[in-house]
Amino acid sequence: MALKQKLKHLLIIALVALPFLIGSCVQNKVAKQKSNLDISAFLAAASPDTIYPSAAQIDMLKKVMPEERFQPAPNISNRNYWNAIAKSTSGQEYLAKANSLLDRAPEVPISDSIYRRANKEGNRGIYKPRYYRTMDRLEHYVLGECLENKGRFLPQIQTYVDSIIAMKSWVHPNHDDGNNGILEGRRVSIDLGARKFGSVLAIASSLLDDKLPEDLHAEIASEIQRRITDTYLTSTKHADENNTWIDGTSNWNSVCTSGTVLATITNSNDYDKRLATIGSAINSMSHYLTGFGDDGYCSEGLGYWGYGFSHYLYLAQIVFDYSDGHIDMFKFDNPEKLKNVGNFPENFVIQDGRCAPFADGVSKTSSSGSNFANMLSAYHYDAILPTEIRMEEAAEQLIAWNHPALFEVSSQATVPELPSHTYFEDFGMVISRGKQQNPFSIALKAGHNDENHNHSDVGTYTLVLGGDVMSGDIGAPSYTAGAFSPKNPARSSWGHPIPRLNETLQSNGKAFKGVFLDTDFTANTDKVVVDIKPAYEFPALEILERTMSNDKSGSGTITIEDYFVASEPITFETAIMTLNSYEVVDNQTVILTSKHQKVKAEIKSEGFKVTIKDEQVPVKHLREGGPAFRIGIKANKAVNTGKIIIVYTPL
Predict the structure, then answer these.
(1) How far is the C-alpha of 419 from the C-alpha of 400, rounded, in Å?
(2) I want to staple 127 with a disulfide (CB 3.0 to 4.6 A). Which of 118, 188, 253, 386 is the partner?
(3) How confident is the model at residue 384 (pLDDT cuts 50, 70, 90)?
């Protein structure tokens, strides 16, 4: 019965939404005959020095873009649409949440002194949550009013909008400059917070129509124009200090661009600015997508894949809808790459939901937060279909209500049979999976030291037994003051299980990299050799190779071997990193113990003997928990050549 009821609700929503969507298509097709935008040709026509679209690109856009503003959903006066949504399960749940928040006061603006303190300390906790609680409530009030249409939410909506407009700065304090230039009004910039303020205000104005006073609509339009559209288009024309993310490859680009586009095409009455914004976004997304390998690898890790790619996909959906399907960013200029990106999560898992927390990634797949990227990846790229829908933003919820067919869920979880290994060749990362009853597996990366959310970590690895991470990368420091410093012990190569030469750590920059010299994957053993010498500025170093082998027989044996040759005697050191309990038995044996598992690390050497020095990583807050420990393994004398070998076996 539950399934039949759900299907009935989906059918009602689809039938109500269909005239809205078809009507828009018919209107635009009558106005002008359109062909689909060839994105490859569009990108080829771009100006070489700016994100702003060239004259040729503008001409191409005029052939596919409507002249009217974007309507993200029917406005509140369309009661057939909204009453049908209100009867659906998701509509009822959304309204219930909105009602539960109805008496909450906005938490912005807050004092300039708190803003300055948050900026100086890098303290997100005293400011950022207030942003997002305020925005979450406003989103629910707006859509709640559309669902109910009784006027109960309108006073709060006006109060919240007034509070947001009164804010001197829409950016998070830690994204302002050291002199608080945005707070002080010397410049205007868009960040992860500002784009959300702009998009939610645009949705409110568009959907609520005459339910809001005309002067409030005018204030919203003016603020979005000043704080979003104008600063964005200025930055696309020439590089400035305000929106440096527009040609970036990280999640910032997709997140800020998606909010900027939604706010602008919904709010702006200027056709040319809407064209320029869409054109700039397409040019900008060509940069964002270069942050992924052609094999789909995301160096930012799984959490940022979900955050960044979900916003790319919601951008793709609103542009697809706005252009009546004539601009298809789901394929962009490389459909195969987009498919690989969409399937990254299942390919990145080591086993039992565990993955490598490289860079600022996470070691466990999340069961909370938005899974919008997973839903649309299942539809467009044949990725695994989720068993539930989780939304975090009003824009996502509106897309789901407008397109119910895109958001079907699976009745039961699909657990794919993972291959014995996965090799992301573009960025240089290998997952070698044991197939034992209690699988013993490893992920090892080469990469380079200028990746998104970069750590100095060429050669790092993550060792997993069953469902527990036993050794290897300790993940990211929490985002407080100093978290992004290359000298942060959890971010520098000191805080990773990689070599140190004469106390020299790895250097930062794209040239400092690792290169896979050899890969050999068989049924019983995986073996790879990585040249990590280029990651160091160390003239005396002639060879530095890391070999990983995974013998999958029995309970498994994973070996990490570091071999070096230098033109002069050097001191050599590597490390075992762990977040678990451990015992240093002697200079050749360390026992690592997690909640459910135990692993022995046997240490061997050639050319010298080794000593062990263990110490706690001096970082108070790690995203993986903590405390973390560095078990340093150091040669007892300087030599020209030698090896340190760590052999891990389950106990």
Answers:
(1) 33
(2) 118
(3) very high
Helix (H) / strand (E) element for 463: namely: strand 461-465
**Cα–Cα distance for residue pair 26/325, rounded to 1 Å:** 12
Cis peptide leading into residue 173 (ω within 30°): no
Residues written for the chain: 651
The radius of gyration computed from the CA coordinates of the chain, to the nearest angstrom, equals 27
Q: At residue 328, what are phi and psi to the nearest 5 degrees?
A: -110, 95
**Residue 415: its pLDDT value, please?**
82
Please identify which residue in the block is written with the tokens 């100006």: 47
Tell me the pLDDT tens digit for each residue of 415-432.
888 999 999 999 999 999
Backbone torsions φ then ψ of 86, nearest 5 degrees: -65, -25
Strands (E), 508-638: 509-513, 515-521, 525-531, 541-551, 557-570, 572-578, 581-586, 589-593, 598-606, 610-616, 629-635
List of E strands, 579-638: 581-586, 589-593, 598-606, 610-616, 629-635
CA distance 59 to 439: 57
Task: Report the distance separating Cα 434 and Cα 425, nearest Å.
Answer: 20
Residues in CB range of 104: below 8 A, 6 or more apart: 133, 137
Return the structure tokens found at 74: 């029917």
CA nearest neighbour of 451 among 424, 469, 431, 482: 424
Q: What is the pLDDT of residues 282-335, one digit of tens each?
A: 999 999 999 999 999 999 888 899 999 999 999 999 999 999 999 999 999 999
Q: What six digits make up the tokens of 15?
A: 């039938």
Structure tokens at 193: 């917070």
Task: State phi, psi for 336 to the nearest 5 degrees.
Answer: -65, -40
Give the orientation angle of helix 89-100 with respect to helix 394-402, to 10 degrees: 160
Q: What percent of the chain has pLDDT over 70?
A: 95
Could you report the per-residue pLDDT of 270-285, keeping only the tens digit for each? 999 999 999 999 999 9
Res 100: pLDDT:
97
Confidence of residue 413 (pLDDT cuts 50, 70, 90): confident
The one-character DSSP state at 300 is T
Give the number of C-alpha atoms closer than 13 A to the C-alpha of residue 452, restricted to the C-beta side. 26
Measure CA 638 to chain center. Answer: 43
Report the run of H or E that residue 163 belongs to, with start and end.
Answer: helix 154-165
Element (H, E) at 468: strand 468-472
How far apart are alpha carbons 246 and 255 in whole angstroms? 10
Supply the pLDDT for residue 183. Answer: 96
- Contact present, 224 and 198 (Cβ < 8 Å): yes
Q: What is the mean pLDDT of residues 381-394?
A: 93
- 565-569 contacts, C-beta under 8 A, 24 or more apart: 565/541, 565/640, 565/641, 566/501, 566/540, 566/541, 566/542, 566/640, 566/641, 567/539, 567/540, 567/542, 567/640, 568/540, 568/640, 569/637, 569/638, 569/639, 569/640
Residue carrying the six token digits 């680009």 = 253
Cβ atoms of residues 490 and 496 within 8 Å: no
| Euclidean distance between CA atoms 235 and 125, whole angstroms | 30
